[in-house]
């Protein structure tokens, strides 16, 4: 299991094989989640590249389902 957490470590870290921490402090009234988003998207891109033979079919099927549901409409 991979855990992505802030620098204070979630209690779930004790159960994770890999723990990735992100510093989320920002000079505002709330913390920024930008570092978490960058890490997650980088991991997803890497997994996609390594498993493209399987991933491509799944993504095409998901896009077909979105199109059929008409819930997620494209803006023109």
From the spread of the alpha carbons, the general shape counts as extended
How much helix is in the residues? 40-55%
Estimate the strand proportion.
Answer: 5-15%
- Number-wise, the strands total 2
Largest sheet data? 2 strands, parallel
Count of helical regions: 2
What is the alpha-carbon Rg in Å? 17 Å
Structural class: alpha+beta
Order of helix and strand elements from N to C terminus:
EEHH
Strand order of the largest sheet: 1-2
Mean model confidence by pLDDT: 88
Oligomer: single chain
Q: In angstroms, what separates the terminal alpha carbons?
A: 40 Å
Uncertain spans:
none
Structure notes:
The protein has about 80 residues and is an alpha+beta fold. It has a domain at about 1-50. It contains two helices and two strands. A two-stranded parallel sheet has the order 1-2. The protein is extended, with a radius of gyration of 17 Å. The mean pLDDT is about 90.
Topology:
Blueprint: E1 2-6, E2 18-22, H1 34-50, H2 52-69
Parallel strand pairs: 1-2
Helix pairs in contact: 1-2
